[in-house]
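REQUEST FORM: STRUCTURE PREDICTION
Request ID: SP-0412
Submitted by: Lab K.M.
Chain count: 1
Length (residues): 285
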Amino acid sequence: MSEDVAASRPTAPPVCPRHPDRVSYVRCQRCGRPVCADCQRPAPVGVQCVDCVAQAAAAAPARRTVLGGTARPGLPVVTLTFLGLCVASYIVGLVNPAWVDQLAFNPVLGDSEPYRFVTAAFLHASTIHIASNLIALWFVGPYLEQALGRLRFATLYLLSAVGGQVGVVLLATATHSWTTWVVGASGAVFGLFGAIFFVMRRLGGNASGIIGVIVLNVVIGFVVPGIAWQAHAGGLVTGAVLGAAYAYAPKNQRRLVAVLVPVALAAAMFVAVRITYANFTLASL
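STATUS: Completed
RESULT:
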């Protein structure tokens, strides 16, 4: 008489692949593997394992906003990052005043140290100065970040910041204002003002309120001494151009527009600045 040894041998209980020390008789409805209580995720029928849920999420198309940005619930990460950088930079400047000297902008130093076109936008001269700019940033930033998506919003903010310093170079009188220090996120904030006007119009919102805010801030720039209205103008124009391009780009051309327009705008600003510097150098000879 023969005996089936394999059949009489006890089989090992099924265990979770992610936690081999845990026995589980519940199986994933998608891949069929055992899944312990910690790895189970509710599914329309039964449960799925965390690996299958992650694979399904990665394969699913990203949800898009009306303007083509990736819809991301939760906190406005890019806006909060810019807010945090401004606050951190202001604190460092209070502790070490040399920080401001190393990063602030004026047209003369901008020629030899072009990084100042960006870094000056994260510096502020006083508590009132930084508070007013950050309140304005928080007022419009999350709305634009959600509508445009993180990458396009970050591009808008940074290019508007640069555009503010470009405005100073182009509009400041070379013989009187080129050694005047410029700091603050006003150029970037005005860029957001310019962009949100077109975004709101594109989405069917009432843009009259933002027009009032822009006009009021422009008037303040001319009336209150010590404000670089040139930076406001440069940032406003830059943001308006980008905002219009983002808002009205054809649906099937949004990615192309999101690359070409910022690159073309940055190139135009570079050429304009170089021509201005060349003319100033020739005039000073």
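NOTES: The CA atoms of residues 49 and 100 lie 53 Å apart.
Reviewed by: T.R.
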